[in-house]
From TrEMBL:
Pfam families, per the entry: Longin, Synaptobrevin
Membrane topology, as annotated: Lipid-anchor
Annotated protein name in UniProt: Synaptobrevin homolog YKT6
Keywords carried by this UniProt record: Coiled coil, Cytoplasm, Cytoplasmic vesicle, ER-Golgi transport, Golgi apparatus, Lipoprotein, Membrane, Methylation, Palmitate, Prenylation, Protein transport, Transferase, Transport
Residue ranges constituting the V-SNARE coiled-coil homology domain according to the UniProt record: 138-198
Record family assignment: Belongs to the synaptobrevin family.
Boundaries of every Longin domain copy: 8-131
């Protein structure tokens, strides 16, 4: 999973203005980096121009996904990531960046701003922090931990089966289970014998 670009733009009536952008083009060759960065800027502006106010969308371009969020106040954000990057995390990042940007940069400066005149320094740190969505986003981290727990549980059941122990033998040898519990287990086992245990 990789984030390549994070941009803040203003959707004007006649044109879209790039206000601030951060790029991670380290995975491209040195000679391609400036062209790739220009293409990401062009793509971000084009997507914002073609998107309506108050909309969120994800646009696929080859193996990349461009996530765009255009607010009703014409402030817009674009994340360009690989196709594996979770969309929910990308939109969480866009919402956070746009809220932060609108609090730090005066609205009067949006239509006439440029990356050189806008004083907002949060994009690089957000781009770096959100490279790993599990670390940056609490929900993704919790989901990863749940998936990991499932794997551990599945591995535990498989390891029990690998040792060659049968549950029937364990039940019959058990000193904790009473005679009625053992009888109940045998009866239930007979009735469920048509079903396989997953």
């Amino acid at each position: 999973m990789k984030l390549y670009s994070l941009s803040v733009l203003y959707k004007g009536e006649s044109k879209t203005v790039l206000l601030k952008a951060a790029y991670d083009v380290s995975s491209f060759s040195f000679f391609q980096r400036s062209s790739v960065q220009e293409f990401m800027t062009f793509t971000s502006q084009l997507i914002v121009e073609r998107s309506g106010k108050g909309s969120r969308a994800s646009v696929k371009e080859q193996e990349y996904l461009c996530h765009v969020y255009v607010r009703n106040d014409s402030l817009a954000g674009v994340v360009i990531a690989d196709s594996e990057y979770p969309s929910r995390v990308a939109f969480t990042l866009l919402e956070k960046v746009l809220d932060e940007f609108s609090k730090q940069v005066d609205r009067i400066d949006w239509p006439t701003g440029s990356p050189d005149t806008i004083h907002y320094t949060g994009l690089d740190s957000h781009l770096s922090r959100y490279q790993n969505p599990r670390e940056a986003d609490p929900m993704t981290k919790v989901q990863a931990e749940l998936d990991e727990t499932k794997i551990i549980l599945h591995n535990t059941m498989e390891s029990l089966l690998e040792r060659g122990e049968k549950l029937d033998d364990l039940v019959s040898k058990s000193e904790v289970l009473g005679i009625q519990s053992k009888a109940f287990y045998k009866t239930a086992r007979k009735q469920n014998s048509c079903c396989a245990i997953m």
